[in-house]
Structures are given as structure tokens and as C-alpha cells.
Design goal:
Blueprint lengths: L7 H5 L10 H31 L3 H28 L2 H25 L4 H29 L5 H30 L1 H21 L14 H14 L1 H17 L1 H4 L1 H8 L4 H20 L1 H7 L2 H21 L3 H28 L6 H29 L2 H17 L36 E8 L5 H17 L3 E7 L6 E8 L2 H9 L3 H12 L8 E6 L14 E4 L2
Antiparallel strand pairs: 1-3, 1-4, 2-3, 4-5
Helix pairs in contact: 2-3, 2-5, 2-6, 2-7, 3-5, 3-8, 3-16, 4-5, 4-7, 5-16, 6-7, 6-12, 6-15, 8-16, 9-15, 9-16, 9-17, 12-15, 14-15, 14-17, 16-17, 18-20
């Protein structure tokens, strides 16, 4: 479970494998690796099937797009589900969809109904299941492991997948070459059942809220708003999106490189994918050591340079051995980059919104990957593979340089959890949970000597309250009584007002105290709660007003 924050040394000390000491995390993580093994086998089978039945380079590249586009479309919705409903149940639903879609694909292949668009369609459905599962699983990491282990746990998610990558594609190539496509699809469907059974068996505690669930519209709005107001999350998403767009050429075009440039078959394709995974595993195991000695921005720059070198090498070589070495370098850069941006998003997100911030992150980076697959596939089809790979290398160097505009910030501690302690004030009217909009006004008396300090604190207060749900925040000065300042904001409903106060952290409460210390009145600042009523309504306008002293 998430615990109290530790010192910087506490966060630096745990090794990459420390989260595996937690039984629930270990069980789901291991089951996920089994599923990933099947998914990689299926990727090899689908990519090779597409390369053999279609003469279009673009259709081959779109296999990668079909597996990433659902995350772009569904992730924000899935993140809202993960923050409002049982994350375990959302994971189970997503895994169930993967099993059903994979079983249907297997059946169609067995019956001989093979068509490029049918292949892309089932690949899309399987990815839809993953889009439901992934934000809930990523958000559950902070519920299952201790907060100090979150960076290691996020790294393990990449390490685990890329460990499987060392054997999955090669195994997929062997199965396809030796037993045929039907065997590969059948085995994949069976592997998807493993995490489904594990999630059914494992249960973990999640901090419950006394407040009702948010509507999906409000949940998505609050998630997007929080993300837009977090400079750390925005920087991580921007770099991740650009990195995905530029680097996906390595994986999206690899079947074409094997077929046209290296003259290999499924086994060669699987072997090269294994080389990619080997480099990724090495980087993942060394990630904790790298994080202690290098800043996250420096690691991101090195990752971009490594992937650029990989892409350029693939453009110039006709040797499978050289290509394998280049892919190992690219795999190391790949896992280093994704671990860095993933950790940045996790640590910058409090528990109440982490599912949504992660889903927005997934949506945009997978959108970048899908767009990159289309872009580099189009370049390869209309010009040449060499042009596409060289273009990818140049774009990756630009992503490294983008650190000047979107630097990844260093953070050892995760965003503090909200206090979730708030005694709702009594009101004179019968206010229902959905009553609203609620207007909050706080009046301060500020002397001229404290004015600059007050305005600085109120700018910070606006940021704090707006990111947890306050809307239309304003600060007014009384023209007739210049010492009097009024802070005003709204929430859509009474429940949203309560939810806003439940989301405030200890640091946010301390900010309130610092503002109150500048108040020059004999009594604490006066807070007024009102409920708006439209004047055009046939009902008689009414207003519930409550004056609450601020301590």
C-alpha cells in the first residue's frame, strides 16, 4: 500500500526488483509477462501474415497503428473508469475483451477467412482490451506497492515486457515457421487467459471515498484540467509523444527491413526483435543505477541518441548481425525513454486522478506512435526504406533537442495524497448532492505592505484550487474599500464542492494558513457559500448563504 513519503535516500535505495517482494504485484506482473509473450507471438504472426497477403508497405506498417490507435481513442475514458470504479474490475473487463477478440481471430484464421482489413480489425479489438486494462493496471501500481517503490515498479513494467521481447518474437517466428499461423494464434489466446485468472484471484485494498462517483463527463474534465495544469506531466507527455512518433519507425518497418533489405524470413524477424529486447532488458536492469547518477533529462537525451543511431544503422546495413546489434542499442534507448516519462507522470499524479493522467499520457503517446507508423510507412512506400529510417533518425535528434522547451523535471517523491478530511459546513437549505452551481466567496483585508506577498500566494492558491476542481476562479479588489479583496470560485454541484476539499493536501492547507496570516482583520477571513439560481426560471430565485470564519 502507499505509505508516507520518505527521504531522498529512501527513494534512491530500492533496487529495480524491490516491488516483486509484494505478492499481489508479483503475481499480476508475472501473469502480465505471460500475456505479453503471447501478444508478441501474435504480433509476429499478424505482421508476417500481413506481409505475405498484402503487397502494400502501408498496410504492413498499419499493423502497428491498429495496435496503438485504440489507446489514443479509449484511454481517457478508460482512465475515468479506473478512477471512478474498481480498478480490478476494469482490468478484468479489458482482459476479457482481449480473450474474446483473440479467440475470434483464431477461429477466422482456422476457417481460412484471411483479409488485410479483417486482420487490422481484430488487432484493433485486442488493443481495445489493452486500452481498458493498461490505465487501471498502471494506476493500481501505487495502490499495491509502497510509494518509494513506484519508480522501480514503473521501470519493472517496461523491463518485464522487454525481457519477454527477447524470446517472444523469436518464439513467435519459430512457431509460425514450424507449426503455422494457427498454432501461434491459438497459443496467444491461451496466454491471455493467465492474467484474467490472476486478476480474478488477486485482491488489494484501495482507499475508499465517502463521496459518490463522479459523472464520466466531470471525471474526464477534471482529469484533463489537472493534466493541463501540471507542467511536469505536460512535459513528459510532450516528449513521450514526440519520441513515439519518431522512434516507432524502427519497429513498424522492421518486417519490411527483414523481407526487402536483409532477405530473411519469420525466424530472422523474431531474432532481430529478440536483439531489441536484449538491449531493453539490460537498460531496464541498470535503470536504478542510471537514475542515481544521471538526471532524467540527460537519460532522455541519451535514449533519443541511441534510437537515432539504431535507425540510421538499419538504413545502411544489409547484415543481420549488424542489424541485431543496432536493435539492441535501440531497445536500450526505448526502455530508458519510456521508463523516464512513465515515472514522471506517476510521481506527479495524486491517487485520485492518476488513472486519468496515465490514460491521457497513453492516449497521446499512442496517438503519436500510430501517426508515426502511418508517416514512416507512407515515406517507405512512396520513396524508400532508407529515406524513412534516416528521417526517423533525424527526428529523434530533434526530440533530444526538444528538452530545451520541454525538460523532464527531476522528482524523488511522489505527489502527496490528499487528506480526505473535511467537515462539511451546515447550511440552512436542504442541499442535495447534485444541487448547484455552488459559489464560494472569501473576503480578506490586506494592508498595502502585504499586498505583493498576498498576490503571490493567491496566484499559487488559484493553481491549487483550479487543479482540484474549482472553476471560474477570480480575485476582486473593492474600489471603495481598497483593503478588501474577494476570492470567488464555483463548483458545478455541492458534491463537487465537497470533493474539492477532500482533494486538498497538507501543503494546500498550509498555503491557506499562510494566506490567513496576511489578513489584517480582527476576525478570520469570511467565507460565504451560495447556490446560484437562474433568474429566467419560473421558480422563485433562492440563495443559500453561509458565513464561515476561516482559521
Amino acid at each position: 500500500m502507499s505509505g508516507v513519503a520518505g527521504s531522498d535516500e529512501d527513494f534512491a535505495a530500492p533496487s529495480t526488483f524491490a516491488p516483486l517482494m509484494q505478492p499481489t504485484f508479483r503475481s499480476i506482473w508475472l501473469a502480465t509477462q505471460v500475456s505479453s509473450l503471447g501478444w508478441l507471438m501474435q504480433t509476429v504472426a499478424i505482421s508476417w501474415l500481413m506481409a505475405t497477403i498484402s503487397t502494400s508497405d502501408l498496410m504492413v506498417a498499419l499493423v502497428q497503428a491498429s495496435s496503438t490507435l485504440p489507446a489514443f481513442i479509449l484511454s481517457v475514458f478508460a482512465g475515468a473508469l479506473a478512477d471512478n470504479f474498481s480498478r480490478r474490475r476494469v482490468m478484468f473487463a479489458g482482459r476479457s475483451l482481449m480473450v474474446v477478440a483473440s479467440a475470434m481471430l483464431t477461429a477466422f484464421v482456422a476457417l481460412g477467412f484471411v483479409d488485410p482489413w479483417m486482420i487490422l480489425g481484430f488487432s484493433f479489438l485486442i488493443a481495445c482490451g489493452g486500452a481498458l486494462n493498461d490505465p487501471a493496471w498502471q494506476a493500481s501500481v501505487g495502490d499495491i506497492v509502497h510509494r518509494r517503490d513506484v519508480p522501480a515498479a514503473v521501470t519493472l513494467l517496461s523491463v518485464g515486457f522487454n525481457t519477454v521481447r527477447t524470446v517472444g518474437p523469436a518464439l513467435g517466428g519459430i512457431v509460425v515457421a514450424s507449426f503455422g499461423l494457427l498454432a501461434a494464434f491459438t497459443v496467444t489466446t491461451l496466454t491471455y487467459l493467465v492474467p484474467l485468472a490472476t486478476i480474478w484471484r488477486c485482491k488489494w485494498k484501495v482507499r475508499s471515498s465517502s463521496l459518490p462517483r463522479e459523472s464520466m463527463r466531470t471525471a474526464i474534465y477534471d482529469g484533463v484540467r489537472f493534466t493541463a495544469m501540471s507542467s511536469e506531466i505536460k512535459a513528459a507527455i510532450a516528449r513521450g509523444t514526440l519520441f513515439g512518433l519518431a522512434s516507432i519507425a524502427i519497429l513498424a518497418l522492421l518486417p519490411l527491413i527483414v523481407r526487402d533489405q536483409l532477405g530473411g524470413g519469420p525466424l530472422a524477424y523474431g531474432t532481430l526483435m529478440a536483439g531489441f529486447g536484449t538491449g531493453a532488458v539490460f537498460a531496464g536492469i541498470s535503470n536504478s543505477r542510471f537514475r542515481r547518477s544521471l538526471s532524467q533529462e540527460r537519460l532522455m537525451t541519451l535514449a533519443c541518441v541511441a534510437c537515432a543511431a539504431c535507425s540510421l544503422s538499419l538504413a545502411l546495413t544489409s547484415s543481420i548481425a549488424v542489424a541485431a546489434i543496432a536493435l539492441a542499442l535501440g531497445g536500450a534507448g526505448w526502455v530508458t525513454a519510456w521508463s523516464g516519462v512513465g515515472v514522471s507522470v506517476q510521481l506527479a499524479s495524486p491517487r485520485w486522478v492518476v488513472g486519468r493522467t496515465i490514460s491521457i499520457y497513453y492516449a497521446l503517446i499512442d496517438g503519436g506512435i500510430a501517426a508515426g507508423s502511418w508517416v514512416w510507412g507512407t515515406v517507405a512506400e512512396n520513396h524508400s526504406l532508407t529515406w524513412a529510417l534516416e528521417g526517423s533518425a533525424g527526428a529523434l535528434l530533434l526530440v533530444a533537442a526538444a528538452g530545451v522547451l520541454f525538460p523532464l523535471r527531476e522528482r524523488r517523491d511522489s505527489e502527496p495524497d490528499p487528506l480526505e478530511e473535511f467537515d462539511a459546513p451546515a447550511v440552512a437549505l436542504d442541499v442535495k448532492p447534485r444541487s448547484g452551481p455552488i459559489v464560494v466567496k472569501v473576503e480578506y483585508l490586506i494592508s498595502e505592505k502585504n499586498l505583493e506577498a498576498f498576490l503571490d500566494l493567491m496566484r499559487e492558491r488559484r493553481h491549487v484550487h483550479s487543479r482540484v476542481g474549482a472553476r471560474q476562479w477570480t480575485l476582486q479588489r473593492n474600489l471603495q474599500k481598497p483593503m478588501q479583496w474577494t476570492e470567488t470560485f464555483r463548483t458545478p454541484t455541492w458534491t463537487d464542492y465537497l470533493r474539492l476539499n477532500h482533494r486538498l493536501t497538507t501543503a494546500d492547507k498550509q498555503l491557506d494558513e499562510r494566506v490567513c496570516q496576511l489578513h489584517a482583520g480582527e476576525h478570520p477571513p469570511q467565507m460565504t457559500l451560495s447556490i446560484e439560481r437562474p433568474t429566467s426560471s419560473a421558480r422563485k430565485p433562492e440563495q443559500s448563504v453561509l458565513h464561515v470564519p476561516r482559521h
